[in-house]
Amino acid sequence: FNTCAGGLFGHPCTVASSRDIRGTQPEQSMGHASLIRLDADLVTSAGARCLDGSGGGFYWRAASSAQNGTKLVVFLQGGGECRSATECAVWDGGAGRGSAGWPKTKRLGEDELSDDSSVNPHFHDWNKLFVPYCSADMHSGTRLTPSHALGGGYFAGHNLINATLAQLRRSLPALAPSLVLLSGSSAGGIGVLLHADYFAAAWPAATVKAAPAAGFFYPAVSSERDFINGDATPARRLGLAAEWAPYVSPRCAALYPGEASKCTDAAFAWRALATPLFVRENQYDTAKLANCGCDASAALTANDTSYLRQWGRWVRGTLRDLGSDLGSEATPHGYFAPSCLSHAANLGWSAAPLIRGVSMLDSLAAWFFETGGAPARLADDCGELPCGGGGGGSCPHLPQDPLSRACVGRLAELCHGLRGRGDACDACLESHVHDLEAHGCPSRGRPLLRWYCGGGGAGGHHVCDVRIGTNDVALLPPPSEALPRIPTVTIAPGVEMPLINLGGVHSHPSNYSAWLQLGGRGLDTAMMYGDDVQVQVGDAVAASGLPREELFLTSKVPCCPAESFTSWCVWYDKEYKDLDAYTRSEIDARLLGVGRVDLLLLHWPCATMEETVATYRSLERFALDGKASAIGISNFNASAIDALFAAGLTVPPAVNQVGFSIGGHSESRLGRDLDTLRKCREKGIAFSAYSPLGGLSGVDVLHHPRVLKVAAAHNRSAAQVALRWVTQQGVVAVSASSNPAHLASDLGSFSFNLTGAEMKALAEI
What we know:
By secondary structure, this protein is of the alpha/beta class.
């Protein structure tokens, strides 16, 4: 990776000539920009070449009014990239692989480049600088020689930008920008993110702001297989191709010493930007999904939809970070993120859908000009799969609620190949109305028929041609089935905790939205489960529409180094080693999107009791500052509880969460025993059980003959018996599932009671 900042600003790698070349204003027809080719010395010495070795250039259109003569729109063209010799041999994106055929004038097109005030009311009469894309490297490369590994092409996108700025000074020496909008789409959007500070340094007297479209690249996992297997992806695999020698800004290189690849991964790179950033990004970008192994144009499997969900969580979580700027209310950054299954086509001025009734242009203008009047940070919150926006343009998406997804999956099975085929599709589907009703579609069957056969939805939306496999959809029980009220337990003065809560970890996330729809109100998560899980929980809370006071949110902060859980601490040390527990707790609440958690637990004891007490003190301070209604501990046994209390506590633990089930209640090391239960009751600590179905116990609880016998006697499932054995003792259960039917069953486990003899018999397993 080349960490040189380029030749324009006097760094040692300067190669551009300093001779003064007087420029003349090119002649332009209305709406057209003129081609200015780079001087020969910039091509040869600065390495400002297209992929085929030809010299680069740019298109310039001057403002027609003097009042806008110092205002400038810079646009970096997009067009894909190539990463192998085979790909690079045929790459012809953007402006092509060479400049020989570039026209002398070019109409600059739409959106921020348009000269039509009805389309582009804010920037139509500004100076326009259009940078063609001919380097196949996302405008990033710094090579001065061809790459033999990639077929002999030059990868010099950064060199071309550097030389463009030098040539601009030569050809237009009087140009002194005061206000600059830096934009670009797709590969150009990535180029914008990489070079935002670079352009700002070129014009230090100007206000420069960057608004890339579809340029927020690469997620926390790089392939569907990685996600399904729970495999972490090294940062070096997420960065741009090393063979391009991509440009890395000095500021970013300093932020991530020895990890330059992070500076070509948006999840990290934006944090190094001093330039205000407005990200225009679909939550489900088809181009990036394809790069990562998910083909959104084909029938989607259960794994595909899991990966789509993961991608959406990553995008929303990263944008939430960007918008909060690590807690700062004065963040300069904004975003507009529709829940669309698309790349860049729907991110233009007029093509973008509305989000909560606000257009993308209004949001961007409010951010750029700091006028207010519209939110500068907007993201669709309509669910966990692409579900469209609020109208105002094309937004390919999928039906969102479980019932619609199940119906559409059945529609695709019945009339495969007829979607959008009008009368033929109608005839097929009308003949299967009874089948659809059997699959739970009586009230919405015919509207879905019209939606499916017409190829679109209300409000001008078009639904992309994908199918959700029915194996991914579990129907919710009919709404007429009333679920019993969920009992609570008092854990602190004025704090009531549901007796059953829904948890989930990175490798096995739960369906939090369905849980809330079905009547569940307690959600359990932890910082160590991964940012994506925290964001998913926060999204479910935000999308539920439920009053915050009706929900109970538990999270956990780790303690590292630790006597146990050392493998989890490896990841933690890399990301959060230098942060104290109070700061980690603040980050955790921010990821969840809440100002206060109801219960914050110390996830496990530290390596020493001194460290444990010191960390717990941070949680006490967090509670006293009003950021947690109650605090507690997890995986503490009876002796660890005594040692903690011996230190003298200001805020005693309200809860101790441990692994506890029919099959596992005699292992004392991590508090999974009856002695710890008794100690908690002695100290007034509520006892909570994760893995209440026995998954950690080594006992197959759900198929144990004694459990099955009790289940049959009550006409209940084995899982309901296992949960009731826990909760009937006043122990809070934390279950986990992505299947709505299982969630409904868990919530229904309070509808019966076990006899004393049954409780004793089950305890003896």
